Amino acid sequence: HDQSDEIVVFRPGDVNWNTVNVDTTIRPGIMRAAKMGLVQSHTTDLIFTMEPQVAGEHLYDEFNRGRILALFRHPIDRVVSKFYYLQT
Fold first, then answer.
1. pLDDT score recorded for residue 77
2. Alpha-helix residue ranges (DSSP H) falling in 1-88
3. Looking at per-residue confidence, does 47 or 13 come out higher?
4. ∠ at Cα 12 (25, 30), nearest 5°?
């Protein structure tokens, strides 16, 4: 599915959700999704990305607007986790 030129919706294994054949967590995947018209196809309700600015600039337009939800770890938890990670 990852080399297809069209949006393919499929259900991976025994789960209760559908997924599509693009990886929007990375810049090349976002560009591929934009080229394939992911948002305009209305096949997805939720898009995960580590590059919200790139996704906003390339996936959405004035007719297909998105909303953003950001989840952040508490800064102290992040520092403590990094400290223990660097100890190993």
1. 96
2. 27-36, 52-58, 75-87
3. 47
4. 20
